[in-house]
């Protein structure tokens, strides 16, 4: 501690800027980690809080995925011996038509029994609505609002509220406003209650409920209740505590969470590099100080712990800053994730609070400190090894010794060979990931050598541009590779991740466009909601013939899709008229015979699965799937595996007849409409809208509009690439400013001589700018090469472990081209201040600088 | 203020240089002198007498706290940094005690450095650099780096660099201070030879009386003040 106070503190004070830049590396890594994980947790917390608050005293919930089940299931549940109270529920998220308000969560309940599970205390309104459930039945346009929502929009008892329903916009009468309570704060306070049978009608449920909430009788455990109900209802139902829905939500977000984890890990790794760079340079520059300490009796251990102590302090300060900054940016990220979840997964979100987890923040602090100390470990060891006599020899340790270069090259070859072996035997997950880690390690081992070689190759080019400034800039990199290589390595890693993400985005776009060209080729799509992924509102099947009768329409196809739980994972079931689809949107399978596949699926003798489902769940052609459904277990073989992007967790395609039989559900999510030759799209669209005006809410999308919508969602999903580019730019600036600050100190005499012999300020600045641009160029070159390799590995990870989708390798040239001016521009910006500091200050002192 | 006659190359008028710090240090106090064109002058004095400060002020590397410095009739006070640099580039050649060669440039490149900074074409720079290295008898060391040269050879390269535009003024700060006696004598002889051939005004800061005595004029400083100014009658004058 005494050494920290006597030695380290004065050093920090003398080199304030450098200390700040070093700390900024950890701030960046920790902020990205905290921001992304906090945002993720907040979104999850918001969802589970809504679930919990709505659940009230509910101990178990019965559901069958998104499909719902017939009303008679309620009788069975209520007849169970372990069940005390069981009530049906419908949940629908509807448009409020209020500007910037978003969605309202409508809970359809049966007031008869629901009051034993949830509290409905009215602040104002007709108490008889609560006391006498028949009032609700008698007045089906009744609605009760949460106080939060009512106050925000000045609704009171007697007000009229317009909501979007399957029958179009409908007016509802506010019969009461609930007092603030746990229930009313669900979904951010955007909550309304209505009678369940009215909800069935308004939201197209027919004679179905979404789920049943229940409590068990005293003296019985939840497990007993689950066992009895499973036996009673069969395997097509999930009977679990309300928290189970949170787990399913998390499973749905697995792909996104994995990308967040990769980004966070890289950000921390890059922060480590910036710390390593700073400490490596500091040890070099403080060699004489270390030599004096050693000569005066400091042990090697004391010297090592001096630098580790400095890194711990830096890590602590950086982590605190990173945590604060991360919490600030979490709100923005959470809002973005919320929108993404709503648009991509169709799960409406209302994240209005950031869930700061003390455990996460403490973990971030610990990670920041530990990362910093790990990064400083090698420089600290080198500091401990300083010979007091040699300590006064300046500059010697800037170069890479021939021995070290050889060692790096040999290690690079050996580790690279092992990595290739792992790649060729990458069947098992540990072997594959080991190979990946080793590939990154090879890049880090050889990057100083490659930087040096590239700098030497760059020298004649720079000299040709500016004979003095260019040559000196290149020489600065060549003579002090340690100073430069860590900045270049940090930039290399950062750009490698950008290239990988951009490559995946590019491949995904191309694959999705291919898929849309074959699978989504109808002229029009008719949906009950403005958002095509919302499945809580559906059409009756009878609408099909009504659509078919409209002039200009040749064919109408009905699609029902719903998420169900299959082998503990939420997957999408898509039920279509397979015969019709086979004629209009025929696809070649990746496994199986197309004719056989369509024929057997249409006959209800088989199922088609998406290739990502097959990969994630290890399914094979011919394998019999067992899919629990409310009306029994579907046991059908896989007759074809196709490329399909309907859902990230995977898709099961079946004929509508099978879905109807096992779910007793013939409703429709989307009508696919093909026009007769010569029919005009705008005219037919108008006819459809006119046909159903006043009867039901109908949205009609053209093929182009749907494509744009899907690509827009894809854009949102890959919004992480933009975050990563921003991180890369920050890394570039931080690393280069750090390197140049030290470079100018090291080259003080050289720059003084330049001025003494006639170098103008502009010429001095130019040499600094050229050095910065050269570092940027080196980082770009190495980053693109590593990025090409990284893209391959990340594509494999996406295929094997995230979404199962097989994407083509497509190097993102467009992104790469855009990165060149971006990073070089960042490098130039980073050089502005150091270049100014190089031309100011006493020339005499610079010439006498030792 | 002394009349800055046409024959005067360097003039100082009541120049003071004070360094601020925990305690103010007066490096030069009220110095007035003039050096005519073509004269070879030595400046002597004990350590801390202000010799190097005087040289730095003449060369425009530093600015006086008060008083004026004139170089070839032009006052340096009031010039911007870039204007001062241009004066240095066009009129002054500097020779440093520790050579101050750029370690990554060859002899040829070091000598050509000021010319590149002036924007001369490459071919012309190359020709002039070779000519100068020939002048200081280093034509066989064109492509050597400073690390590959002896102390005397490095100083010769530094002298060649200082002469790159054949400047009217040559300033040398302890040019032999980092060399052994024999090499030092060779360097001094070279400087005298170049002075005779080129007719430059030469100012040498030294603590070595042999060096001082070989000059036409010696100015002595003590505690920042001019205490003696001696002109010698040279043999053959």
Tell me what the structure shows.
Chain A contains 30 helices and 21 strands. Chain A is of the alpha+beta class and about 850 residues long. In chain A, the strands form 3 sheets. In chain A, strands 1, 3, 4, 5, 6, 7, 8, 9, 11 and 12 form a 10-stranded mixed beta sheet that branches. A 9-stranded mixed beta sheet of chain A has the order 17-18-16-19-15-14-20-13-21. In chain A, helix 2 runs antiparallel to helix 14 and helix 13 packs antiparallel against helix 25. Chain B has about 240 residues and is of the alpha/beta class. Helix content of chain B is about 35%, strand content about 25%. Chain B is built from 7 helices and 10 strands. Chain B has a 6-stranded mixed beta sheet with strand order 6-7-8-3-9-10. Chain B has a 4-stranded antiparallel beta sheet with strand order 2-1-4-5, covered by helices on one side. In chain B, helix 3 runs parallel beside helix 5, helix 4 crosses helix 5 and helix 5 runs parallel beside helix 6. The relative contact order of chain B is 0.19. The interface between A and B is medium-sized, with 26 and 27 residues.
Question: How much is the average pLDDT of chain B?
Answer: 88
Structural class of chain B: alpha/beta
Strand fraction of chain A equals 15-25%
Question: What general outline of chain A do the C-alpha atoms trace?
Answer: elongated
Count the E strands of chain A: 21
**How many beta-strand runs of chain B?**
10
Query: Runs of chain A with pLDDT <50, length 5+?
Result: 394-398
Assembly level: heterodimer
Write down the Rg of chain A.
Answer: 32 Å
What count of helical segments of chain B does DSSP give? 7
Order of helices and strands of chain B: EEEHEEHEHHHEHEHEE
Task: Please report the distance between the alpha carbons of the first and last residues of chain A.
Answer: 30 Å
Radius of gyration of chain B: 18 Å
Number of helices of chain A: 30
- Helical fraction of chain B: 25-40%
- Major protein interface: A-B, 26 and 27 residues
Low-confidence stretches of chain B at least 5 residues in length (pLDDT < 50)? none
Largest sheet of chain B: 6 strands, mixed
Strand order across the largest sheet of chain B: 6-7-8-3-9-10
Strand content of chain B: 25-35%
Shape label of chain B: globular
């Amino acid at each position: 501690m005494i050494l920290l106070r006597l030695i380290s503190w004065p050093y920090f004070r003398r080199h304030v800027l450098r200390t700040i830049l070093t700390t900024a590396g950890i701030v960046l890594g920790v902020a990205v980690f905290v921001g992304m994980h906090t945002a993720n947790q907040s979104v999850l917390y918001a969802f589970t809080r809504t679930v919990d608050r709505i659940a009230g005293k509910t101990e178990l919930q019965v559901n069958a995925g998104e499909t719902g089940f017939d009303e008679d299931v309620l009788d069975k549940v209520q007849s169970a011996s372990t069940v005390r109270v069981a009530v049906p529920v419908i949940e629908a998220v509807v448009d409020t038509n209020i500007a910037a308000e978003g969605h309202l969560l409508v809970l359809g309940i049966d007031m008869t029994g629901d009051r034993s599970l949830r509290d409905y205390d009215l602040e104002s309104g007709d108490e008889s609505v609560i006391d006498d459930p028949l009032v609700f039945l008698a007045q089906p346009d009744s609605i009760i609002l949460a106080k939060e929502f009512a106050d925000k929009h000045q609704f009171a008892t007697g007000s009229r509220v317009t909501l979007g329903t399957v029958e179009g916009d409908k007016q509802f009468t506010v019969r009461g406003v609930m007092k603030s309570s746990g229930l009313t704060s669900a979904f951010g306070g955007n909550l309304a209650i209505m009678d369940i049978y009215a909800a069935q009608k308004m939201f197209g449920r027919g004679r179905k409920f979404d789920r049943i909430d229940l409590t068990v009788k005293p003296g019985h455990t939840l497990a007993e209740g689950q066992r009895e109900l499973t036996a009673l209802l069969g395997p097509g139902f999930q009977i679990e505590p309300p928290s189970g829905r949170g787990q399913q939500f998390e499973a749905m977000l697995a792909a996104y969470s994995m990308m967040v984890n990769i980004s966070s890990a890289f950000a921390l790794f890059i922060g480590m590099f910036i710390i390593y760079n700073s400490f490596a340079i500091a040890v070099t520059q403080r060699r004489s100080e270390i030599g004096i300490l050693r000569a005066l009796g400091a042990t090697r251990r004391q010297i090592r712990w001096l630098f580790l102590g400095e890194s711990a302090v830096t890590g602590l300060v950086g982590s605190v800053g990173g945590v604060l900054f991360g919490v600030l940016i979490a709100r923005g990220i959470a809002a973005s994730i919320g929108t993404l979840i709503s648009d991509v997964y169709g799960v409406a979100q209302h994240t209005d609070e950031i869930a700061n987890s003390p455990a996460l923040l403490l973990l971030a602090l610990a990670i920041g400190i530990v990362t910093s100390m790990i990064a400083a470990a090698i420089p600290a060891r080198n500091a401990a090894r300083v010979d007091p006599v040699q300590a006064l020899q300046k500059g010697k340790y800037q170069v890479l010794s021939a021995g070290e270069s050889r060692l790096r090259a040999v290690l690079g070859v050996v580790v690279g060979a092992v990595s290739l072996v792992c790649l060729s035997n990458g069947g098992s997950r540990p072997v594959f990931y080991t190979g990946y880690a080793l590939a990154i390690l090879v890049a880090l081992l050889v990057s100083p050598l490659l930087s040096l070689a590239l700098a030497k190759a760059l020298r004649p080019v720079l000299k040709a541009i500016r004979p003095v400034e260019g040559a000196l800039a290149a020489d600065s990199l060549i003579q002090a590779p340690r100073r430069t290589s860590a900045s270049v390595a940090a930039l290399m890693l950062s750009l490698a991740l950008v290239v990988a993400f951009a490559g995946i985005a590019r491949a995904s776009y191309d694959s999705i466009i291919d898929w849309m060209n074959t699978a989504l080729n109808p002229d029009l799509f008719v949906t009950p909601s403005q958002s095509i992924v919302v499945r809580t509102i559906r059409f009756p099947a009878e609408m099909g013939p009504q659509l078919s009768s409209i002039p200009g329409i040749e064919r109408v196809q009905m699609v029902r899709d719903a998420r169900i739980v299959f082998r503990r994972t939420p997957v999408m079931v898509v039920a279509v008229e397979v015969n019709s689809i086979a004629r209009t949107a025929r696809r070649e399978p990746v496994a199986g015979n197309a004719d056989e596949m369509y024929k057997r699926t249409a006959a209800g003798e088989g199922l088609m699965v998406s290739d990502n489902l097959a990969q994630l769940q290890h399914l094979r052609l011919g394998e019999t799937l067992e899919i629990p459904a409310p009306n029994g277990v579907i046991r059908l073989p896989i007759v074809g595996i196709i490329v399909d992007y309907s859902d990230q967790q995977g898709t099961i395609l079946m004929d509508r007849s099978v879905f109807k039989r096992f779910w007793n559900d013939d409703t429709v999510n989307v009508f696919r409409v093909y026009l007769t030759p010569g029919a005009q799209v705008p005219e037919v669209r108008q006819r459809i809208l006119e046909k159903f005006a006043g009867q039901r809410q109908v949205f009609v999308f053209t093929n182009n509009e749907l494509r744009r919508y899907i690509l827009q969602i894809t854009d949102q999903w890959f919004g992480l690439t933009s975050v990563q580019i921003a991180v890369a730019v920050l890394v570039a600036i931080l690393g280069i400013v750090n390197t140049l600050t030290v470079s100018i100190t090291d080259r003080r005499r050289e720059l003084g001589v330049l001025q003494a012999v006639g170098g103008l300020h502009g010429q001095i600045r130019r040499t600094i700018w050229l050095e910065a641009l050269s570092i940027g160029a080196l980082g770009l070159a190495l980053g693109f090469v590593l990025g090409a390799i990284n893209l391959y590995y990340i594509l494999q990870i996406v295929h094997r472990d995230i979404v199962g989708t097989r994407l083509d390798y497509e190097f993102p040239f467009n992104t790469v081209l855009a990165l060149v001016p971006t990073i070089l521009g960042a490098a130039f910006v980073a050089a502005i201040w150091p270049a100014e500091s190089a031309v100011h200050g006493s020339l005499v002192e610079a010439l006498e600088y030792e | 203020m002394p009349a800055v006659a046409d024959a005067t190359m360097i003039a100082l008028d009541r120049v003071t240089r004070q360094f601020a710090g925990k305690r103010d240090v007066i490096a030069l106090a009220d110095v007035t002198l003039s050096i005519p064109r073509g004269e070879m002058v030595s400046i002597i004095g004990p350590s801390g007498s202000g010799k190097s400060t005087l040289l730095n002020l003449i060369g425009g590397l530093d600015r006086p706290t008060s008083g004026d410095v004139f170089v070839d009739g032009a006052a340096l006070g009031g010039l911007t940094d870039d204007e001062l640099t241009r004066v240095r580039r066009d009129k002054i050649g500097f020779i440093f005690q520790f050579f101050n060669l750029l370690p990554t440039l060859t002899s040829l490149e070091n000598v050509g450095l000021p010319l590149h900074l002036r924007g001369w074409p490459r071919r012309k720079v190359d020709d002039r650099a070779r000519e100068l290295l020939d002048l200081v008898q280093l034509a066989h060391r064109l492509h050597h780096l400073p690390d590959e040269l002896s102390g005397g050879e490095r100083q010769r390269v530094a002298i060649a660099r200082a002469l790159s535009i054949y400047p009217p003024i040559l300033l040398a700060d302890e040019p032999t201070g980092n060399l052994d006696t024999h090499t030092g004598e060779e360097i001094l002889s070279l400087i005298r030879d170049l002075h005779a051939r080129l007719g430059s005004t030469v100012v040498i800061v030294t603590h070595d009386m042999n060096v001082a005595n070989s000059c036409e004029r010696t100015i002595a400083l003590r505690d920042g003040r001019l205490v003696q100014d001696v002109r010698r009658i040279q043999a053959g004058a």
